[in-house]
Specification:
It comes from Proteiniclasticum sediminis. This protein is 26% helix and 33% strand. By secondary structure, it is of the alpha+beta class. It has one domain: Alpha-Beta Plaits (2-Layer Sandwich). The longest helix is centred in the N-terminal third of the chain and has 13 residues. It is globular, with a radius of gyration of 11 Å.
C-alpha cells in the first residue's frame, strides 16, 4: 500500500475537488476518509505518486482542501497543510 490522499473540510469542497481533478485529467478515485483523520468530511481523493505534480498544480491554483497525506504500510504522514479555517 502506497498512495496519496487529499482530504477536504466539507462535502462541497470535496465535490469541487473531484470536478477539478476530472477537468485537469488527474487520475484519482473518490475514497472514504479514514476515521483517524478528524475534522474532515467523509470524502477524499486517492491518487498515486505519478499524479502528485498535477495535484500540486491544482492546490497552487486555489483548490480548497484540508490536508494532503502520504499513506504507506508503515502509516500515514501529513505532507501538506491545507486552508486555515
Amino acid at each position: 500500500m502506497d498512495f496519496y490522499l487529499l482530504v477536504f473540510k466539507n462535502t462541497l469542497d470535496a465535490l469541487k475537488g473531484d470536478e477539478a481533478f476530472k477537468t485537469a485529467s488527474v487520475s484519482h478515485v473518490v475514497y472514504p476518509t479514514p476515521p483517524q483523520i478528524i475534522g474532515s468530511c467523509g470524502i477524499s481523493m486517492r491518487f498515486q505518486e505519478e499524479a502528485l505534480e498535477g495535484v500540486s498544480r491544482l492546490i497552487d491554483s486555489g483548490l480548497s482542501y484540508k490536508a494532503l497525506y502520504h499513506i504507506t504500510d508503515l502509516g500515514m504522514k501529513k505532507i501538506r497543510e491545507g486552508d486555515a479555517e
